[in-house]
Design goal:
- The protein has helices at residues 5-8, 11-27, 40-51, 59-64, 111-122, 128-143, 157-160, 179-182, 184-195, and strands at 67-69, 76-87, 93-103, 107-109, 125-126, 147-156, 171-178.
- The protein is an alpha+beta fold.
- Strands 5-2-3-6-7 form a five-stranded mixed β-sheet, with helices on both faces. A two-stranded antiparallel sheet has the order 1-4.
- α2 packs across α3 (40-51).
- It starts with a helix and ends with a helix.
Length: 196
């Protein structure tokens, strides 16, 4: 889904956020009026609106916009979906990839819609654990498939740039429903496919 500047950047919200970021610069000890920082509050305000645009999207509606009746009952896997989200605890990015599979039960969706669901939930203030479950639940509730599997692998800058400062740490979360939860062979097939 493409967005115009007007749809993402509300002028009133941008101005209000920019005032707060200007105050933050001052509180950090910066001269918010020096040349290099003059437009920074507005740029950050627009950046925050962009990276949280998922609040204005309905992930279920994204799936429903491309539903097709099909009697395919094997695994559909979309793997290595790029993921950019923002940790709600420190407002710092976490970046990684998401793997999503489902087994249709008479209904499929456009493949790009799976990636759009991930994007819609990722572009909010998040924790990786919740994001994983939200993607699973949205697909399960909207498509009513035989099962859904979601695995997210991400690096958290709040862990690498501050705090424990472990740059190579990768966090992996998973969420399963239906046949992926109840059938070890199906779950293992999914896990093997995402490792290839």
């Amino acid at each position: 889904m493409s967005y115009t500047k007007q749809e993402i950047f509300d002028e009133q919200t941008t101005a209000a956020l920019a005032e707060h970021y200007k105050a933050i610069l001052h509180l950090l000890g910066e001269d918010e009026n020096r040349e290099g920082l003059l437009k920074t509050p507005e740029r950050v305000a627009k950046a925050m609106q962009f990276i949280t645009q998922g609040y204005s999207q309905d992930p279920s509606e994204l799936l429903r916009s491309a539903l097709f009746h099909e009697e395919y009952k094997q695994m559909v896997l979309v793997k290595d979906i790029e993921l950019y989200s923002t940790c709600e605890h420190h407002l710092m990015p976490f970046i990684g990839k998401c793997h999503v599979a489902y087994i249709p039960n008479g209904t499929i969706t456009g493949l790009s819609k799976i990636a759009r669901v991930v994007e819609a939930y990722a572009r909010r203030l998040q924790v990786q654990e919740r994001l994983t479950v939200q993607v699973r639940d949205c697909i399960q509730q909207t498509l009513n498939p035989l099962g859904v599997a979601v695995v997210i692998e991400a690096r958290h800058t709040c862990m690498s740039m501050r705090g424990v400062q472990k740059a190579d740490a990768v966090t992996t979360t998973s969420a399963f429903s239906g046949i992926f939860l109840n059938d070890v062979r199906t779950r293992n097939e999914f896990l093997q496919l995402i490792r290839q």
